[in-house]
Amino acid sequence: MICKDCGRPAPSNMQGYCQACYLYFVREKKVIYPTPSYGEITYAPNGDCICPFCGKAFRKLGAHFWNFHHILSKNAKELAGWDHTVKASNIDYRAHMHFIQQQKCIDINLIVKGKPTRRKIGHHLKKYVSEMSRLRLTKQISKEELK
Predict the structure, then answer these.
(1) Secondary structure of residue 50 in the 3-state scheme
(2) Is the pLDDT of residue 4 over 60?
(3) Do 72 and 64 form a contact (C-beta atoms < 8 A)?
(4) CA-to-CA separations, 60 to 86, 89, 94, 102, 105, in angstroms, rounded
(5) CB of 32 within 8 A of CB of 42?
(6) Percent helix, strand and coil across the chain, each rounded to 5?
(7) If DSSP codes are grouped into helix, strand and coil, which group holds residue 114?
(8) pLDDT interval class at 140 (50, 70, 90)
(9) How far is it, in rounded angstroms, from Cα 37 to Cα 52?
(10) Alpha carbons 48 and 87: distance in angstroms, whole number
(11) Is residue 58 helix, strand or coil?
């Protein structure tokens, strides 16, 4: 049996859809929107970005480009006439992920409870500095101490 939307193989127990189309149309009750014109990015009423090739709306359009159209997000943006810096994802999702990343940065990276997280004077930096830079810094420090 073939999917009645995308033409992929479909199992007989999913009302004529493949698994991806079944989730999109039947379970999530989404529709196909009119495809936007060249160079225009549009959003569905729930904030999801509409694919310029098939008209389906997704929270993360870059993953849809790769999984269903088999092209990279960068190439898809060029084909759609979008700027390469345009964000092809749900606005609320981006704000939520930004908040989570900020919390992770503050809670985990900056504030490690009970442990000093800043570099101490005389801390060993061998793994961070090349041998050439280490020698240059050592000479510079010894010159300053002689003054």
Answers:
(1) strand
(2) yes
(3) no
(4) 13, 5, 9, 20, 23
(5) no
(6) 40, 5, 50
(7) coil
(8) confident
(9) 8
(10) 11
(11) strand
Position with higher pLDDT, 73 vs 112: 73
Q: Are 71 and 79 in contact (CB under 8 A)?
A: yes
Please give the pLDDT value at position 87. Answer: 86
- The single-letter DSSP state of residue 59 is S
This prediction's pTM: 0.61
Give residue 50's pLDDT band: very low, low, confident or very high (50, 70, 90). Answer: very high
Q: How far apart are CA 91 and CA 80, in angstroms?
A: 19
Tokens of 86: 């345009």
Q: How far is CA 68 from CA 64, 65, 98, 122, in A?
A: 6, 6, 26, 54
Write out the two tokens for 105.
Answer: 């940065």
